[in-house]
Structures
1.
Amino acid sequence: MPHKTFFAFILPSLIAMALFIALPIVSVVVQSFHVEHGRILVEVESCQPFGGCTKETRVDTAAMSELKAAQPMGQFNGFGTYLNRGHLAVNEIGAILANNNGFGDIVTRIYNLPFYKALSFTLVFCFVVTPLAMALGFAIALAVNTLPKVTKGPVIFFSLLPMIITPLIGSLILYWMIQPNGIIGATLRHVFNDPTLSLRQSPALTWFSLLFYGVWTNAPFSFVVFYAGLQTVPADTLESAMIDGASRWERIRYIVIPHLAPLATFVALVQLMDNFRVFEPIVGFSAEANATSLSWMIFNDLAGDAQLFGSAGATSVLTIIGVVILLTPVLIRTWREFNHKVV
Amino acid sequence: MSQATLSHKRPLGLTILITGFIVVWVILAAFPFFWTVWGSFKVEPDFFSRESWWNAIFGVYTQRQNDGSAFTGSGYYGAWVTREFWRAVGNTAIVTVSVTVISLTLGTLGGYALARSGQRYAFWILILALVFRAMPHITLVSGYLLPFFQLNIWGVLPTSIIVLVAINQPFTLWMLHSFFLSIPKDLDESAMVDGCSRFEAFRRVIIPVMWPGVVTTGLFSFLLAYNDFAVTSMLLSADNQTMVPKISSFLGSVQEQGNVMFAVAAVVSATVPLFILVLFFQRQIVSGLTAGAVKG
């Protein structure tokens, strides 16, 4: 295809991506180097007939709005926002490392810094939910594959629901059930005979319920992909393995799993990307006291009354760096394969 | 897999184990939805019962407040009429339909070009799209807000629509790219030998055969727009909210008034279209998920 025709076809799509994906990334980077203006204070002397004069410090709103109009992004701050307590917290970490009571103390104190708290939940969510959901999805796929045809359709239908559901709505539905006055929460209280048990109160239980939600909503995707993959397992290989006396488990271990390995890489990649931006369940579960994520931190900065663009920008840039690190192995592999093809 | 031979030999214990596992999974997957639908017709002291969840089944308080009837539509009335949820439904309809149509239009053109180009830069565009696909939406939103305030286009539906279209492009391009690769090259090339221009060949030969792929991709574009929370909650003003941010705003204000049932009713209302979608397009959704995996 000639270059000109190619670009005529793809230009609208490229413009959309450049304007609303590439440019915002640039804008985020620029924002992250700026910080909100400090408040301009004026001293006002107010005199009353009998009380004498008092001096009062007030925020000069007129000058503030003027400055805001002139420099909407705020003042230049360099890497200040990145290094402050809300983000990488360099000074705090230095202080913790210099003066602490052993390894456990270091971990707890670093965990209490907001950025590291969010980062640790995000990573745990990513790397716990993805393998568990894939394993569950694979198990469901194997099981569904043995079902008679009549029941396959309805089972697949119900299996799709947790994946297709709006993340916020899905997490709300589960949250209402696990609340102490919902069906699961009440049952758990009854089972453990503990009338104060609440999944929201302890950080560990909050994490557990969020991870449970993650597996619940991620498993169907792995299931569908693996189920489709199972249909393409060569029947001859399976039969010859059976003739050679391979057991059911050996057939799965030595034929089915190697056959599905490329699919598994794909599923893992997609789910890692999606789980890294975990955000809605934290809103739905109102879990911010015990678990926050990088995306939630950005949302929180932007949603407040004083929108902290600088802070949100810095977290965004750090998140993007995280995404790129996550993608690097894939990119390197694709790059090698592509060069192989060309040479 | 040779079903017949395998299933004949399966021992009884294994069959029971498999059936039990499937039953547990289906309950796990489907029960929360049925429970919420059932509970949305109760009053709050029943669905969020402090005494026993049997109240949610029998509707003890619902009967008391409702002259003996165990079902009530008051949650729906409160959400749809009192709190004007219908407005959010209308906005969602506008946003999802526009996003689907626009992103498919841009995506088919772009995906077709990528599938037929074979140049080095086509590969790079696809890789770039993959990186863009991985960007958390909220990081992009934090880049939009200030410029949109400055340009005075914050809060209205068209802004959100175009943003969602752009966020959707990487996925649409990948999906349609792999779909167009499966349409033989000879088809449009022979049309061009017969004297069509590239665009005419696309219009006369490719468009008539591309609908299965377009429908599948369209389903996922629809889902992305429908399920979005990050973009619509930050970029729409309160009057223009779509369903999902509206539901989250219910939670902020309604919970204090002790009327969380509005939110439950709204959640059920927003789930129904998805339910219908899966019911009718189950095959396309499954094939779409696997198409990306097998070819991509």
Note: Chain B touches chain A through 107 residues (CB under 8 Å).
2.
Amino acid sequence: MRFGFKWSLLAVLLVVVLAACTNTSTTAPTATASSGVSQAPGAQGTASQTSSVTGATSGRPAGAGLINGPYPGEARNLNGAGATFPAVLYTKWFSDYAQLTGVQINYQSIGSGGGIKAISDRTVDFGASDAPLTDEQLKAVKGGQLLHIPTTLGGVAVTYNIPGVSKQLKFTPETLSGIFLGTITKWNDPKLVADNPDAGLPGNNIVVVHRSDGSGTTNIFTDYLSNVSSDWKSKVGVGTSVNWPVGLGEKGNEGVSAGVKQNPNSIGYVEVIYAIQNKLGVGLLKNKAGNFVQPSTETVSEAAAGVAQSIAPDLRASIVNAPGANAYPIAGLTYILIYQQQTDKAKAIALTRMLWWGIHDGQKYTTELGYSPLPQEIVSKVEDKILSVTVNGQQAFPGK
Amino acid sequence: MDKIASGSRFAGGEDQGDKLFRWLVTGLAVGTIVLLALIIFLVFGDARSALLQFGLSFLTTAIWDPVAERFGALAFIYGTLVTSAVALLIAGPISVGAALFLTEYVPKWLREPLSFLIELLAVIPSIIYGLWGLFILAPLMRDAVEPFLQNTLGQVPVIGALFSGAILGRDMLIAGVILAIMILPTVTAVSREVLRAVPDTQREGMIALGATKWEMIQGAVLPYAKAGIAGASVLGLARALGETMAVTMVIGNSSSAISPSLFTPGYTMASAIANQFTEADSEMYFSALVAVALVLLLVAALVNVAARLLVWRVARGPQGSARL
Amino acid sequence: MEGSDITVGSGGALTRDQDGIWQRRRLVDVFMTVLITVSALIGVAVLLAILAYVVINGAPALNLDFFTQRPLPYGEVGGGVAPAILGTLYMLFVAGLIGVPIGVGTGIYLSEYAGTRLAPAVRFTIDLIAGLPSIVIGVFVWALLVRHLVGHFSGLAGSVALAIVMVPIITRTVEEVLRLVPGSLREAALALGVPRWRTILRVVLPTARSGVTTGVVLAMARAGGETAPLLLTSLGNQFFNTNLLQPMAALPVQIYNYASSPFADWHTKAWGGALVLIATIGVLSLVTRLATRGQRPG
């Protein structure tokens, strides 16, 4: 039965191939190789650049509800790849956005490192990363000025699976870094028991699960550990991929949640939504103010509140170990990465429209999926960024 | 061979069409050589900066630190060798047994269906072994087999170290077992060809002398096929070395230092590339990964050549072209 | 070996002592018979275990949506893998367009022009390509097509990777089956004044038709299950895509993504995908096996 099905499909495909061969004009591989000479490499776009753009629109376009249907001349397909941290939100966005505008945005969650690499090599239309690029990485990109577009905020949950333990566990910076450094190896280690006296922690070995791929979640997590532990800072450091002292590696937030779920006595770190959807234990973390905090929309927003006013012009920011009384300590912004000078008009229009929709209309999806909406101060700064995107010297965003 | 003779006999009469056709197929054949050259050239080109930077220490150190950009592939090479060795230790004897069963024991009518079933194992895609390994084999190993090994063999001095440490459910032993299943059909099929190439006169001689079946096998068949069976095993090894998906899904993907225990999660060269390739976000990191691919390419080529030399020595001609 | 040599060689009348040796020899023989039988059974048992799990876990996933819908966002139950099935077929088709001519041509060269000095080098090359780990093929195609010629992840890059997987399989089979075509056939055609190229295309190839088809189908089956090179080349796509220059979904990659997710529904879909893949490949193998029965030795 399969056999016949397959061959008939093959026959159909022949027709499809012929059709597609005449329809490849939608993709125009960007051929211009050298990056723009006009900007010093690594120089950051600022809001003032917006005014220099010869835009068709005057004044600031409206926010939510502006994009409500297809736009003539925009590309029908976009490709993006990168972070798994916001993948839950992005696939939801792009599924709904396809219904709204007919633009199909293919997003593959291959990890933040992959997103950075893909946009640097220009093998995708946009990259996604939870880790802002380093100055060095910014110099290495091949398509000119790269913009960081924050899309949402999220917390990294410390998640565990210990059979027989139902009480929510508390972790301090010391115990958490100890576990991931391999100096705390058993669940009934006195340090852990001191914080969780009546949790009934067993004497089993701790199975550490970490990411095997280049990950922005890892970047946020190791940024936090480096912030709170000098041992971690000197031995491991911060990065999208690090040399893990202990544990087993799994690919993506999906892989780590699956690894924690399938291995008794394990601990891992994932974007909050992955822990919630998988009904895994989520640890309370001791923050800078000394309170044990649960990762939630509110506590993550509180972590971001402090940085919203003072954020750098290029919007690269770290919000780990934030000072607020209820600020959740392991949180971060996640970014979509695009080039400021676009080369394909149809794609540039589709891309800027999608981003505009995402930072306005798209924000309503954040809380239900376990993320936090962008603070208003950041949204207006992101608007400037989107408006600063040009194609052939013209503002790319069509204003509606 | 006759066609060459006929070709040369008619060589004078080669017309335009003949010439064109000859050039066409020669072009395609040469194309494959160009392809291989291009593969080696491109892989070497991208691996160059890592090889220049780290030199031989790339093969002798086990540090894989993308933050500090220090890379040494020893842990991956070790993982590849260990998992392949485990696979060969398990699959080798079973495959030779199965091949013997198929050539010496089984009634003729059952021979074909049975070998078809075993060969079917070879057409199952790697990803399905991975899926099965992840959801069926790994929990079984973690909950039953590995605790058993730890309580028995783990208590024996010296080799006990192989079965020590925490059982995580993703480790090199599980990867080895999956690989064993995957190379089983290869080693069985080639061993079977080799065994079939043993002349019947060898067998008849032993039987006539009153030997039992096993004595016949032991005395006349196996010595004759020894080199070929070794070749079959090396061919299996070649497959195990380069296997990617199934291993990636069960080995645990962790590049922490080399440990003697089979219960530690690790990386093979192939799984390291699969996991990290699209994510290597610095030039040196990328180059180091391609260098791993280069090492894997060279090792696989060497092992393949060795295997073919061994198999060819025993079974020549169309019968022996049991190439998989 | 040593013991058996002596006993067998000694011959003569059986004494009681030799009777005991005979008993032991019989025992060893029975023991080895059991061991060897068990070895063969292990192979079959593992196969059945894998097939059984794939069928049991995969069958619940199969419904109309599975074959016609595209994947849903994370954590939502439902949807299907239609883009992946279509993508795999599409890329296989294009890979065939590239790989079959090269494979068949090279096979003809190796069989019909075997006397040339180049032939051993080509044969060796084909062996080496066959031995390339598929992930290395992925690295190569990434470096050639994704980074340079096409400039981004694409179905075309995936097809080229699959074509490289297919070429050595086709070449070897074609060479082998063409060698089995009797030389007298060629001579008869040539004697009638038929040019050599027409002899090969009109007489030799058609005679070996079913063998050549087997090679192509086996290569397709093998390439259709490849995952590793596609991770680096065709990337994946959650939408339907028929544009070869865009990223394209493939069933094995989809299985991998679903298997490494934490969602039970996606696990079921991974098993369902595995069932579709294995059923297709199994049926293809069986059909080609039956079709070519008796034509090839073994």
Note: Chain C has a mean pLDDT of 89.
3.
Amino acid sequence: MRAYTPKDNVQAKSYYTDRFWVAPQVAKSAVSDDEVFAADLEAIKAKFDVLDAYIQVEQMIVIINANDNYAVLELLKNECEYTQLSEMSAIDWLDQEGKFEIFYQMLSMTKRKRVRIKCKIDEKEAIQSVEKLFRCADWSEREMYDMFGVVVNNHPFMKRILMPEDWEGFPLRKTYPLQGDEFAAWYEVDKIFGKEAREIIGPENRDPARIDRYDTKRFSRLGHEVPFGTDISQGEPDTPLVYQEQEGVFMIDKFDAQKSVVISDRHR
Amino acid sequence: MAQHQVNYLKDGGLPVALTTIDKVVNWGRSNSIWALTYGLACCGIEMMASGASRYDFDRFGTIFRASPRQAELMVVAGTLTKKHAEFIRRLYDQMTEPKWVISMGSCANTGGMFNTYATVQGVDRVIPVDLYLPGCAPRPETLQYAVMMLQQKIRKEPASRSQKPKRLM
């Protein structure tokens, strides 16, 4: 059967589709263009397998095997002067390749160069921790575990860092829905009141544009307030903004300009 | 020795006020709404501005307290995350009756722009709310108006009624 397309407003249909659009690629160049990077790459190649290496935006990217990650970073830190790990995390390529890409962004202050070490692991595979080399990797690896579910071996404190400890699912995976799955939608209700409270509290309102003009249980128009739950489909009365009750407040005098006196001498 | 004549029978001269207990209690309650410091996000800045000298919450008797045991108002100022939801419920339960809640700003009202997995879509899913303030973030005047509305609400209720614990369910 043919797919249904609405015919009531054919003119409004956009005739442009992006079927021939190709994502622009950042230009790559060979590592031999830069002598500093070429020397670094030689140092890595002497001891480890390098799957690919190139320069992009003046930074060298080296793709290695996942089980070499600790040793390669140790080499870069101790022998190639890349003393800082400025960033590390994972990228979800599960849909395209069935793998996670782990990247380590390294900075050398003396050489003024940046190198990115990349490796790929399977979904269930664990990666070696680099926390012993770089203290900053502690929280980054915990975040990587929290957001992607990449387990890190030999980490001193492998625990979720941002989400609650009893959270299910890994939010930065491409398969995780932005507005949360079933568990996320009922998390606070289940935890505080228990599952039996779901019916009483009801599902979340996820429609940000939802406004019921006649809903007096959730909204009130300022200056037109009515008691809770009143039917206002026939219009509502004006209730001007008042700061206090009309008849005054016990023990509190209202300011009256008529009774007040303006002092002529301020320094009296 | 009194230097001036005090007419004890004239209104105002008398150091005695005749009224009902309800009114006295409500007068006390409505003019000493101690609020729990509950700034969760940028609305907290506006809440702090309301408490500072320019807007001066102290003249309403609203003093920010750092302990839920001493507070009777919770101004939920900011985004409530799902991780934090159990703590806000615990702090609310620790507050002594009578207690009131002001939900300040879009995030506290409905989750606001954070239509995501990690944000509670309105604090009224977790604790009962008395007043909702619109705005992102509401200005200090709005919070002041809310406190004055709350004062009116407190004065309207009979203070002598038995305390019915507020529960969401």
Note: Chain A touches chain B at residues 162-164, 171, 176-181, 184, 187-189, 191-193, 197, 200-201, 204-206, 208, 218, 241-245, 249-252 (CB under 8 Å).
4.
Amino acid sequence: MRVLVTGSSSLLGRMLVARLLERGDTVSVLQRQPAHLAGVEEVLGSVADPTAVRRAIAGCDAVVHVAAKVGIVGTWAEFAETNIVGTRVVVHAAQEAGVNRFVHVSSPSVAHSGSALIGAEAGPASPKSARGHYAKSKAEAELIALGANSSAMCVVALRPHLIWGPGDIQLVGRIVERARQGRLAYVGSGAALIDSTFIDNAAGALIAAIGRAGSAAGEALIVSNGEPRPIGELVDSIVIAHGLTPPRLRVPRPFAFAGGWIAERLWRALRLDGEPPMTTFLAEQLGTAHWFDQRRTRELLRWTPHVSIDRGIVRLAAAHAAGPISSAAG
Amino acid sequence: MSRPPSHEQATRPPALPGIEPAWSRLVDIVDTRGTDRTFHVLDTQVPDPLLTVLCVHGNPSWSYLWRDVIAQAPPTVRVVAPDHLSMGFSDRTGADRDLADRIDDLDRLSTAIGIDGPVVTLAHDWGGPISLGWARRHLAALQGVILTNTAVGRGDAPAPRLISAARLPAVLGAVTQRTPLFIRAALRMSSPQPDADVRDGFLAPYRTRDRRAGIRAFVADIPLDPTHASASTLERIERDLTLFTDVPALLMWGTRDLVFGERYLHDLEDRLPHADVHRFVDAAHFVTEDAPVAAAVWDWIDERLSRNGVTGSGLGVDEPQPVASLLTVPEGADGPLVTEWREHGWRSVEAPTFVARVRCLAAGFRTTGIASGDRVAVMIPPGIDLTAVVYACWEAGLIVVLVDGGLGVRNMHRAVRAADPDWLVGIPSAMVAARAFGWPGRKIVVGEMDPRLRRSLRVQRSLRETEFAGEGSHEHHDPGDDPPAVVGFTSGSTGPSKGVRYRRSQLGAQRDAIAALYEIGPTDRLVAAFAPFALYGPALGIASVVPDLDITRPGTLTGRALSAAVEQIDATLVFLSPAAMANVVATAGELTSEERAPLGRVRLVLCAGAPVRLGLLQAMADLTPSAALHTPYGMTEVLPVADISLTQRMAVGEAHGACVGRPVEGVGVRIHPLDHDGRPGSQPTNEPDVLGEVVVRARHGKDSYDRLWWTEHRSRTADGWHRTGDVGHLDGDGFLWIGGRVQHLMLTADGPLAPVVYEHAAERVPGVIRAAAVGVGPVGTQVPVVVLEMHQRSRRPLPGPEVTDAVRHEMAEAGCLSPAAVLAMTSIPVDKRHNSKVDRTRVAVWAEKVLAGKRPVRW
């Protein structure tokens, strides 16, 4: 099978490409900067550029659309350009090219407005209630992708929650960096139950979705390890895996929210670069439960995660022992 | 024939949730005055029904009240639920109708819509008298009568206060008609509060002042005094209830009703002594809204009518033999029979004296006016007085209501109200509590009490006076073959305490089962530090002693007190609760070698009432080196079910839950396997290694639950198996393993998991005192969470990486799923009576809050 992976320089993109190549697929990749991946056909360009996308997609049977603008820094226009326009361009190009399997990588945040999520189901994407530029733009993108589902092209949206693993700069990198600086703190008691996804499992679910696109067509499915953990325990494990001491600091939830609110406005007002140390979004993510019902996902994809959290932590420690993550500081 | 033009005519209701438009119909009748009237009726219109259920609402409501009953009706049964005239969506008649008119209206309606064939009436509130008036005219067709929160007569008791208040001239119009206050207030009494759409449903036909005229008329028609127009009609209905003694009856009551309180239930119980009774303890006036009345209605009809009442009567085992007397003191026995510790010394009563005292008391009870079959609540700490009173009650054919202090105040209060004793025999503090809480029953005080206090507490007699009164009276009273003998209560660790009724033969069978199982003979002497068994000495025909302990706090028995009690009668047997044993072991260090010596002569230690830890038994075994240590398994409903010795328990280990041993002689134990969602089926199996609800049957099991017809119905299978609510499995060697309670199963995506295995694994981690395993999250996708109580207390809910890793390691060793979280609680809530059964439901609520990221609640 010939598969196009957009956004292959991300952690998930890289892992997915490696797994596809392993099983003998022909892989094309599309992203702005060279991804330095061997054995792939690389097209450089933006997902919002129809010409580049058309070139990359030619001759493909399947598309996995990973590319997205993530994080909390940036203007709405920037998020909309990559996430909404980009998805529309990729979806149209796929339809034109006669692609019959389309896996769209989405996010659980597209359907939820910030209350505690306890064994929650996926629910429909809602650009109105989603919070923040990222979630709103991804919600629009998911609607566009699933809207293109047809008998000619089966579209599945997967929403992996909180991906981590060796080489991860988003979550692991930040936690470790802050722990080194002694700036890592729990929000509240640290007991909020959080779902997360070990990187190999996220890639495995995407591959399962390519195979099961027919059965899962039109669905939005949340992907996680199915092993929710208290955020404090997960963070402790990651920190310990890097040979550091777990944090002792605790920020009460209201302070975290207030701090996030102030920091967001300061950063905006002063046009500071990078991310504020705390945002309301982050305070909420770290302070309230986010875990999901995995039954439908597993049933439709006929997939179960292969790497448990405990084994994932061991892999993290092994990767750390093998050599420091050079890009950890981001 | 005419129709007054100025009044609104009947209509069909608007679309309302819970009501199918197809049920709604308008039915014309000509009333007794020759006027055309139109009823609105909910009617399932089943052709050629096997049975018709006629539902009669009260005030202020309408047929909406019966929507669940209608929805759950079997296909062969027709349900008819009219709105009275001027009520609901029926005609507004203008003229106020009295009780006789309403009965007549209903009669004409039932003819008009063709109710012929077998009928069961179902009524609520003032629909009760109307339904009974109708039923009186249709006795031939009447198959059953169901009444909920209603009244027919009230004897000498005053009218419901709230009704009297609503009838005050200044109030009546304002609350019943000018405003919808009467309906709103009636609904407000419900708990939990009905949803907004249900409130709207009740209010739908009463939106305007004109439409509410019927509510006012209905209230005005309640005969508060004998001159009232409807008084004679009501009186006749009341009198005619004697005609219903062959008609199956069910009385279902929300006990928190401020209008029709329980005295109206008791009044109906007196008039319909054959009636089945079910009290919904947390339900209020609108019992159909607060409790699953519809399900109970259909279960009752199914059991009492469709199957002619055969269900539930079959025990499936031999009936126990009738017992002439439970008092079996051997002829010629003259040593101390019962010994107790009081204040600073031992007191004993010799066998002949005890027997004489029991006879005097029994006779004295009768001269006091206590009639056979009366209920006598005893609130006396274990010892001579309690034992004498209980045996005297049994001799006199009275029903002993055992309300022990270990229930806690709230459950004690509920228990007394549920049992509704005619008499209350108790120590002075119990008399004070009885007055303070308004407990029913005339009072007999045990011990001395100041005469003025006695008067103010309305104490009728003292126990001594009763005994004097019985002296010299030797008339023997035969209470019948097998009278009900006792009502005890479950500990209420998994819901409100339930009353459990035993007949005398069943108590006899229980005594025989214990005697046979533990080979108890005349040479044995018993230390009874466990409330129910403290009474069994005279029944077993052996001497017993109650050690120095506060029975309401079982954890107060010290090693010293136990040793002294053993020495006092040279005891061979010790019965105690796990909490008492824990404190004995904890205080064993204070024992001198002389104090240890008597413990060394004990041959058998029994520990019952709640799960006992292996380590605790081993520590106890060190104190009583010659004794076999046994833990009987059972429940208030059936005890013993199984038994295991410490030696056996150590041999089988704890890997699969808590092994409670093999079933004892004469007890059947089976499993109702669980489905994927954790619901037990109804096919008993004894296949090994199948997880499910444990069901048992034995001749020494209970007679039935008390005033809990529906609970009894649901807990007993057609073949007489008692559903224990415990989850477990049988192994290949016939051992029974318990994994927790059905309602405590963790309902994960991988199927139901029993908590005890998880708890045992966690309790192997050093520093852990106690553990509770609970499922958190939506049913079917719950995750297991282990909550610890640690020696090292901390207010932080996460116990830290070392403890967490150790717990996860033990889980993996035990073959458990890795828990989503390991949490620490400052103290895990346990039941009051045994200080041992973990309240997993409360733990789950706490864990859910903590894991949601909300601020944890402290206990």
Note: Residues 22-157+226-306 of chain B form a domain with the Rossmann fold fold (CATH 3.40.50.1820).
